[in-house]
Amino acid sequence: MKLLISMLEAVLLLTGAGSAEELSESEFERFEALAAHPVCINLASAGRLRSCGLFSEYQVASLQDYRERTGDILSLTELGTVPGFTPESVSALAWFISLESYNPAGAREKTRIRQEAMGRMTAKRGSSSQGDATVTYAGKYHVEAGERADLYLSWKPGAAAAGSSAGNPTASLTVYGRRPWKLIAGDYNVRLGQGLLVWDGFVLGGYPSVASFRRNASGFSGTGSFTPGRRGLAAAYDGRRWQVSAGLFLGGAAGSASWLGRSGSVGLNAICGRDGSGISLDWKKAFGHLATFGEVGYTCSSGKPSVLAGAVWEPAYKLAISLLGRYRPSADDAGVAAGFQRRWLSLTADLMVHPQKYRLRKNNYEQIKVIVDAAPEFSRGGWVLKPMLRWTERMQLSPSGYAFQAAWRHDLRCDLKASRRWLQTCLRLNGLQTAGYRPGGLAYLEVGYKTPSDTARLQISAYLRGTVCDTENWTSRIYAYERDLPGSFSVPAWYGRKAGLSLVAGVTCRRCKATHRLNLRASTRDFKLQYQLRLY
Question: Which of 274, 298, 422, 479 suits 20 as a labelling partner, its CA being 20 to 30 A distant?
């Protein structure tokens, strides 16, 4: 199943993002780390399954129940039959999970040590005002002891052009006990409930797909990101139907207690510190094909209650209808969103109001955003064709004297991806019209080669892209995702009249119990070189 979709498509499906342009570098880092060190769903504890962020609480409970009744899951096809999973979700999860099993007769559990080290150099061309190019360095180290422990070390300093050696080191150690407990020391993220109270790291802007309406909380989880959330100590204990977790970090503390039933869950969350304090209650409840979720909280900063509640109805396979309402005074956000998905067609609409901006008569106090996505797939003569169309309409209201002024933004993007064994191509045409500015556009053509087998001893890949852009200024900018080195994520903003060329290439060699990977990126803006060593 892993070959059905690319890793990027898997990340989009699991996060609910409608396109790569809506992701962040830290979120892509997390998924690349999971792909390099997959979670073994037959050996991992409930806490490990929750903290990886790949599964909902219902899926975690379903996996545990299935393993107790029938034993280990031995194939992706079998995983697709477990309640809470579909063939589509399993195709995405296949990148980030493994099915190792020690249940067969005579097999004994082994704690395998896996290590990975990465070093990267980046040189960026300076502008006419900056003069010389700037050079930066970054490094990462990860060691994993089976499902027992994880250690992440990372370092990403500032620019070295001025001779500065100040860095941004991060470290995170997570230990998983044989009983359902875990300890975290160092850097970690806290993601509770639906994010009404605390949610470190990546947060989607708006609701680009039906899958983005509800979130899968990961609780307290260690991280190897260059930009972690908090630093301190945390612990969690998982019972059969409940979980308790707490953490101390620089500037505050947070805690959570949750109970999981057969068709739902309820959790109590709290946080206090110099950045704010509050308490919330979150829930999830399923009624057949209808799933409801939400969170109610109170933060001291706003002095007002906040609420977020929604429902997703899935009466048939690949058919879903969603509705969500929210009122968050601390974020000056109130609104309602709705979504519809049928196979390869998706439609979402979001009405958002900023009450404080409205009272102060500030610009953009109200916004309506509608997104239409169509992404069918065809196979002809060995070719796989994926035409994609994304149409975004956004309207913002601003005060204008005693009346109001509406500003529209029309964005139409068409992609055509084609692949056949080693050849991959992508053509994009993106047109944009912003109120008060002339129409603009962006186009690129990418042609790439990749060794057809993912298990070959020697793998080679190379992607060449040419991009042209013509927009009036920064206000009418267009974002376009670009391939980058493993562990890096690039979504530059294009504006003005520009053209660019980029080449991303890599060589991977597997010998004995080691994997060597050398990657480079050369473009009109920067040059990057990276080496990775993975030991099994």
Answer: 422
